[in-house]
Design brief:
The structure is a homotrimer.
Chain A (H helix, E strand, L loop, with lengths): L1 E6 L5 E4 L1 H10 L5 E6 L5 E7 L4 H13 L13 H10 L2 E7 L2 E2 L5 E7 L5 E10 L1 H9 L1
Antiparallel strand pairs in A: 1-8, 2-7, 3-5, 3-8, 4-7, 5-6
């Protein structure tokens, strides 16, 4: 398991971490396999979406604020219930494919750390797993 | 990695792809393992839900349109921000279990490609991974 | 694949199943690997969120009811369309890391079965997969 450190600067922010994850895949010796992501926070998650036009994340942010606004009937006293709710909606765990030593992503697709209660110092856990067949091949050598 | 081609016919549509995925599982020699799904698009995703009564997907569609409507303050100029937002909500990556050579699904459960900016030609990537124990057994033979 | 039985008591309820999953990890001989969760129901799902202050789940529940209320234009006749919609939003499949024989979770993070059409008797499927390297080590003995 590897860890990526992420420093967020805003209350809500989508940080493009595609290149950081791609670096970890490069550093591994995995040609074909899976790259599992896990966010250990409860007010931040992971989304896969367009990283070409930054306006896409801007628009996602507007709607997320509408979906989970502050409410007077919230009971959790820390004031960050919207962040907890948004995290449940986008998820803390996501998985990417690795083919020929590279992350598999669509043409417009990137990986974002979704900050929902920043600014904060965050971590993302990454576990890269080669296909079992890879290991079999190695063990035959 | 295998690819499934999907032709969608409507702007928003939930296409039942359960049987297409089950076919790929059948074609593989995996008895027990995992079937990983990845959607390389940013305005289309994957959901697991009821595929018995089509009215369930109809109702899901109504609410998704309410959750992510067009807005005058959107900045992304392509007009498909609702599709990007819905994709972030349902997710691009999902995983199914394989037991005894078959997909594990609940009685009412199916797998849908969720089109949020159609009609389009779409792809879904499928990676079927057998349990490592399977490979161990094979290598002992 | 193992199964966890869950008895829910309310129409909407978030049941902390962290310790049940941790038990299954303990019972397995996996030191490093992945713990895959799958919910075979279409009106119940899985979320990872704070299990320290129960008010967090209370607040999540309020907003989920706002996001997916009953509507007169729903077609599905069973009256549980909100449950189907909420399930599509949180997801039926999630994955945790295992390190040194323990589930990897953030300090405040727990695993919840999310009941969206209870009370009911539910099941959660758990598949624990050790890293292939584990198996390689074993086969060298």
């Amino acid at each position: 398991m590897r860890k990526i450190n992420i420093k967020t600067n805003f209350h809500q922010e989508f940080v493009d971490i595609t290149s950081k994850i791609a670096e970890l895949v490069d550093e591994s010796d995995v040609r074909n396999g899976l790259c599992h992501l896990f966010c250990p926070h409860t007010t931040g998650g992971i989304i896969f979406n367009e990283n070409c036009d930054p306006d896409v994340c801007y628009d996602i942010g507007i709607v997320f604020d509408v979906l989970a606004p502050q409410r007077p009937d919230f009971r959790h006293s820390e004031g960050n219930s919207p962040g907890h709710i948004k995290t449940s909606l986008v998820g803390s765990d996501h998985t990417l494919f690795i083919e020929n030593g590279k992350l598999v992503l669509g043409r417009w697709q990137g990986v974002f750390f979704a900050e929902f209660d920043g600014p904060r110092s965050r971590q993302l856990f990454v576990k890269i797993v080669g296909d079992a067949a890879n290991y079999a091949v190695k063990s035959r050598k």
